[in-house]
Specification:
Elements (H helix, E strand, L loop, with lengths): L6 E4 L4 H10 L3 E3 L13 E4 L7 H5 L6 E4 L9 H7 L2 E3 L6 H16 L2 H9 L18 E5 L3 H10 L5 E5 L14 H7 L2 E4 L13 H7 L4 E4 L8 H9 L5 E4 L10 H4 L4 E3 L8 H19 L11
Parallel strand pairs: 1-2, 1-3, 3-4, 4-5, 6-7, 6-8, 8-9, 9-10, 10-11
The structure holds 2-keto-D-gluconic acid.
């Protein structure tokens, strides 16, 4: 049981998620993280990765001891501050792996086989004027995965049956059945498609920059289902505009929900509005897992999915 008005919900939750929240608790609502704090004696926060929880906000909430983030990424949390204050935190890993992997594979094929353009080709009656241009196959390609965590490993397992070679880069070798490439530049150089599945935050900020993109090369592709902050967008725009890479599929951006307008004009991109985990089943499961963590906190039980920091 979670006491009424003991949890501050920071940020907007889409209807199907909000329904789950209200089914299980009565939160104090704070739609705008910059807005007025409606009640200061709350003991926990429920939020999502798109809402930065700042030390300035937490300084005004002295009784908060727990933050439940409804998402796998938690780059919105001030971990140093939480550690210093002894505030616990949880996220929702695992339950969204299928949805994110499915979107990634959908984007991969849409990009390589130009499916959105083929659809436009037919509906604009261009087929009678000639054949749609040849595209490229996935089979036989090398896929470089940046960030071989839960999602990266599940993605790799789903991709192997498509007759691809897989290699990966990350902070350290995880001794998996795929080659570990300690240099990101080297992984880019050997990859036909580079897929970003790494966490956001300081350690990965703008790690995809001009040099990496040049190593990736003019016949290769970039897919980002991680965080917009992982890419130097100015360098990516130059690379896409100048043909230094063949194309990119992006589900995340530095500035959401208003990505750099220059992306919208490019012919060699596939853009989606941060929908990696956005299926009904997944968002319900994520919301309930976030609340399971709150329930554990209020009932002095171990958190199901604590963030270890
Ligand atoms: C959340 C995300 O899944 O899980 C993450 O890290 O990137 C987000 O898409 C979504 O906002 C649900 O809270």
């Amino acid at each position: 049981m979670i006491p009424v008005n003991s949890v501050l919900q920071v940020g907007f939750f889409p209807e199907i998620m909000q329904d789950e929240v209200l089914r299980r608790l009565t939160p104090v609502m704070m739609p705008d993280p910059q807005g007025l704090i409606p009640q200061q004696d709350v003991q926990a926060i429920l939020t999502r990765p798109s809402y930065p929880i700042t030390p300035a906000l937490l300084d005004q909430l002295p009784r908060v001891e727990m933050i439940a983030c409804c998402g796998v990424g938690y780059d919105n949390l001030p971990l140093d501050y939480l550690r210093q204050k002894g505030i616990m935190a949880s996220n929702t890993p695992g339950v969204l792996n299928d949805a994110v992997c499915e979107l990634t594979i959908g984007m991969l094929f849409a990009l390589l086989r130009q499916i959105p353009k083929a659809h436009e080709f037919v509906i604009h009656k261009n087929w009678s004027k000639g054949a749609f241009p040849f595209t490229t196959s996935l089979a036989g390609k090398t896929i470089g995965i940046v960030g071989m965590g839960r999602i990266g490993q599940e993605l790799a397992a789903r991709l192997v049956p498509f007759k691809v070679k897989i290699a990966y880069h990350g902070p350290h070798d995880k001794h998996l059945s795929y080659p570990y490439i300690s240099s990101l530049i080297e992984l880019a150089r050997m990859s036909d498609i580079l897929i970003l599945c790494c966490p956001g935050g300081k350690e990965t900020e703008r790690m995809i920059h001009r040099e990496v993109l040049e190593a990736l090369g003019p016949s290769s592709y970039l897919i980002n289902v991680a965080r917009g902050t992982v890419i130097n967008e100015s360098d990516l725009l130059d690379a896409l505009h100048g043909g230094k890479i063949a194309g990119a599929a992006l589900d995340v951006f530095e500035n959401e929900p208003n990505p750099d307008p220059r992306f919208l004009e490019l012919p060699n991109v596939l853009l989606t509005p941060h929908i990696g985990s956005a299926t009904q089943e997944t968002r319900q499961a994520m919301t309930n897992l976030a609340i399971d963590n709150l329930d554990a906190f209020f009932n002095q039980r171990p958190l199901p999915t604590p963030i270890v920091f």
